[in-house]
Design a protein that fits this description.
Blueprint lengths: L3 H4 L2 H10 L2 H12 L5 E5 L7 H6 L3 E6 L2 H14 L4 E4 L12 E4 L9 H9 L5 E6 L3 H4 L10 E3 L2 E10 L4 E10 L2 E10 L3 H10 L4 E5 L14 E6 L1
The structure holds S-adenosylmethionine (SAM).
S-adenosylmethionine binds next to loops.
């Protein structure tokens, strides 16, 4: 079974839910709201960080995530807020058919699948616009990479990391130990590192016509050492 099918349980999800400042999410939502189309498919939506806010601003949203815990969290939040966003447990390797105009894949999930699966994922997206938010683009990630990382506590959960870089396959492998009091969850994540050009090629091969690359949601151009790549592809 691939690592991501049982990695995203309550401890890592709690860590991730608390990790992103609200201002960053708001800036991303402002950016996403400028895209055309009413129906957004949020691929690997997690706990609904984007899907809930897009729904609150009037978009029709379908969120899909492999983590049942994250989907339950998002569903509960939508109900509490009276939002009509739809959340489904599902896998980006076999996405449900929707009428979405736009697909978004935010928060680094783009690098999780292996190469062939990534190409199949892109080829299967029947949407006019695609947004990828990818912090492991080679131009962003490799210049500042450090194998050693200090443990980090966020949202009451401490994450310890032991990192490796698999040069032959350009993969960043992290052995995580999440702890909260007596609770412990261990898992190993794998991120595939692609250059921006490789991502662009894969997206073009999947049938998208134009590609824009940004460094942030304010639209700064993507360049060497930008913190992350935000790629917008249009048919
Ligand atoms: C780092 S979180 C990002 C969540 C959300 N997009 C965000 O930005 O807040 C990564 C998410 O990807 C989901 N995920 C990982 N592999 C997946 C797959 N094959 N199909 C669907 N979701 C997946 C995880 O369950 C997790 O919720």
């Amino acid at each position: 079974m691939p690592w991501y099918t049982d990695f995203f349980t309550e401890l890592p999800n709690t860590f991730w839910r608390a990790a992103v400042p609200i201002e960053s999410t708001t800036a991303e939502i402002d950016f996403l709201m400028k895209l055309p189309g009413d129906h957004v498919l949020d691929v690997a939506c997690g706990s609904g960080r984007h899907a809930l806010e897009l729904a609150a601003r009037g978009r029709r949203v379908t969120g899909v995530d492999v983590s049942a815990e994250a989907v339950a969290h998002a569903t509960d939040a939508a109900r509490e807020r009276g939002l009509s966003a739809e959340f489904l447990v599902g896998d980006m390797r076999a996405l449900p058919v929707t009428t979405a105009d736009t697909a978004i894949c935010m928060g680094n999930a783009f690098g999780y699948l292996d190469h062939d699966q990534t190409r199949a994922f892109l080829a299967g997206l029947d949407v006019g616009t695609l947004v990828l938010d990818y912090g492991f683009a080679a131009e962003s990630f490799l210049p500042g990479v450090a194998l050693e990382e200090e443990p980090l506590t966020i949202g009451g959960v401490t994450a310890e990391q032991i990192n490796e870089y698999d040069v032959a396959r350009s993969r960043w492998i992290t052995h995580f130990t999440f702890t909260r009091g007596e609770e412990v969850h261990r898992g190993t994540s794998v991120q595939h590192v692609y250059t921006a050009a490789e991502v662009g090629r894969m997206v073009t091969e999947a049938g998208f016509g134009t590609i824009e690359m940004y460094a942030d949601p304010d639209g700064a151009p993507y360049e060497l050492r930008s913190a992350r790549l935000i790629l917008v592809a249009r048919r």
